[in-house]
Amino acid sequence: MEYLDKQQTSVGSAPGHILCCQCATPIPPNPTNMCVSCVKMQANIVDDISLNNTIEVCHKCERVFQPPNSWLKADLESKQLLGICLKNIKGLKKLRLVDASFIWTEPHSQRLNVKVTVEKEIEAGAVLRQSVVIHFVIKSHMCNDCHRVEAQDFWKAVVQVRQKTEHKKTFYYLEQLIIKYNQQSACTNVKPESGGVDFFYAREQDARKMVDFLQQVIPCRYTTAKKLKSHDPRNNTHNYKYTFYVEIVPVCRENIVALPKKLAQQLGNLSQLCICIQVSNLITLIDPFTLYLGEVQPVVYWREPFTAICPPSGLVKFMVIDVEPVYDFKTGSSTGGCMSRRHQLADVYISRLSEGGENQVHTRTHLGKILKPGDTVLGFDFRYSNINHPVLETMDPASLPDAIIVKKVYQNRSRRNRNRNWKLKKIADDTSSTNEDYIEFLEDIEEDPLLREKVNVYKDPRKLNNDPNAMDTAEIEVDEEDLPQISLDEMLEDFHLDEGTSS
Predict the structure, then answer these.
(1) What distance in Å separates the CA atoms of residue 413 and residue 419, rounded to the nearest whole number?
(2) How far apart are CA 256 and CA 308, in angstroms?
(3) Residues 6+ apart with CB under 8 A from 482
(4) What is the pLDDT of residues 106-134, one digit of tens each?
(5) Cα gap 240→204, rounded to integer Å
(6) HSE on the CB side for 313, CA within 13 Å?
(7) Cα separation of 428 and 426, whole Å?
């Protein structure tokens, strides 16, 4: 008698298995009575899916087109891009999507491969699952917004920034803030105007973002207006052009302002004659006679506005005769809670530079740390001035000082410009290096560390690559006069990628 193994016995006798009706392969029972291979041959559920598709990407803004008429920002192999690819696959809606993922391809191949797993019920109670790889070809296209930007004459919203002053230093400062926070990326055009600058945008949302940014960095207020350009009565759609008018406060750094009496009391009984030392989202004032500080909110300013008593061109040069630091002084009626630690109070005897040391005048200043006999300062002379200002008319003439010192003037300006080994970036290269306002703005950055913290200063390779011997001589001359400088640690590297540059 021959021994028979259980595996050599008939398969049909195995419990829970049947033979495929097509190939006689033992399989578990199912409604089709067929194996998986035979089911795929009989019913291929991915026949109706388009295996080769195209996807349009704007080569300017790198947004992806999503039918019917929208452009979305989607990174490579991101969830947003996968969703757009799945919506572009024809025949996928008839099946149940189980899984979808990207298959890696070369980034420069302009191809995308998506592996899709789908399910479909082919008979009652029989569900077939199948995977397939779908290929996408990336085609370059330009979206409508980029078309309008390239035309350079289209805009849907404009932000008009204005300031009623004689100089443009505020706009140079605003330009550096816009560059630092990359707020010019959505701007289609920048056009300088009389008293300000205009920013043009292709979308109203971008213009509103610009207005919100301006309110965060400078004290201002704005008004809006819109103009109807076209109207479609069938679809009830309107095409408007929007205008945002932004007005910056007419108070700038190093301005002598005359505060209303009520506002001066609210700021801690400050003197009505103060000097503006900083303009950010607040207006910071200093009392040159007590060193107390006051901060004015934009809402408070527009409720009780104040202006400078004279433009920068109205200041005159004085020569410092003697400086006496003041350490113990009586504050009088001033109850300001914050006193400046960056400044030093001093009694100064000055004389007009044109008078050659005669007719000396005594005044008190906040620049005691940097002044010494023989220096030149800029100030306002009340003795020879006829001012028509509503606040000064209400003040007692006996309480007015003879002069107020605003800033120290450093000599050898041409040498200072030659030795400047740093630069600033510009939105438009229309700022001349000989512009007086722009040169004064560069000097303010060198003299004020707080202002320097808010802008990006870049190294100038043309100045740094000069003859080292010549630079050493220049540095010795600068040190003799103690000119303010910016250290290399505060400068950033400026990178330029040229097409013809080889590694």
Answers:
(1) 10
(2) 5
(3) none
(4) 878 889 999 998 888 776 666 778 888 98
(5) 10
(6) 5
(7) 5
